[in-house]
Hints:
This protein is mostly helical. The protein has one domain (3-7, 29-80). The protein has 4 helices and no strands. The protein has helices at 3-17, 38-52, 56-59, 69-80. Helix 1 (3-17) packs across helix 4 (69-80). The radius of gyration is 12 Å and the shape is globular.
Amino acid sequence: MDHREELRKYLKDLLSQKGDKQPFSDDASLLLSGRLASVDAIEIVVFLEEKFGVNFSEVGFDQSLIDSVDAIDSLLQTVKK
């Protein structure tokens, strides 16, 4: 499973836990749109730290960095360099 697919699955599961079973595109806002709450942002950060080794103390935290699959993918590409 590639990382984008893994991100989609994780975010779909997170939305589903909130009762949101609506589809979303890779560029769809999930946090800033209100589909997910700030507590969910913490879960996403922990997931990214554990699964992909993202160190937010180095990167800095901004919700826009984790607001969509595209944003997270961009973050992961930046961190890998």
